[in-house]
User: Which sequence fits this backbone?
């Protein structure tokens, strides 16, 4: 049957009026970093396969990965790893029923972001 009260129901908030929350933004970033790490794994496997193929091919692939663009991709992958790691710990805490309040989830979200940036910077400093 047709619903005659269609005009009286509230509409869902549209993206143009919805204010993103830290938890929703970090959830989306968590998914994106998971996919990004999978793509980075393909680059690492390509590097290993090039090393097993021939010295010339390895020099080519190594040159690509150690170029400024390749290093930028690798540093972004490193940040994605650390963010996914710390945000995953945050999710494990939620699974245990800890930190589910609004202020606690926002605080732990910012902690995950700050720790991921700090660990990325520390790893880059230690490898240079």
Assistant:
């Amino acid at each position: 049957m047709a619903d005659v009260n269609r005009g009286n129901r509230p509409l869902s908030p549209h993206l143009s009026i919805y204010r993103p929350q830290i938890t929703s933004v970090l959830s989306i970033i968590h998914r994106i970093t998971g996919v990004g790490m999978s793509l980075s794994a393909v680059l690492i496997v390509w590097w290993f396969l090039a090393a097993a193929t021939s010295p010339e091919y390895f020099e080519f692939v190594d040159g690509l990965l150690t170029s400024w663009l390749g290093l930028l991709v690798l540093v972004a992958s490193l940040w994605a790893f650390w963010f996914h790691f710390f945000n995953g710990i945050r999710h494990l805490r939620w699974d245990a029923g800890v930190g589910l309040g609004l202020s606690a989830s926002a605080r732990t979200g910012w902690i995950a972001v700050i720790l991921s940036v700090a660990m990325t910077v520390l790893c880059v400093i230690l490898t240079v």
In short: Helices lie at 22-53, 55-65, 68-95, 102-127. The chain has a mean pLDDT of 92. The radius of gyration is 21 Å.
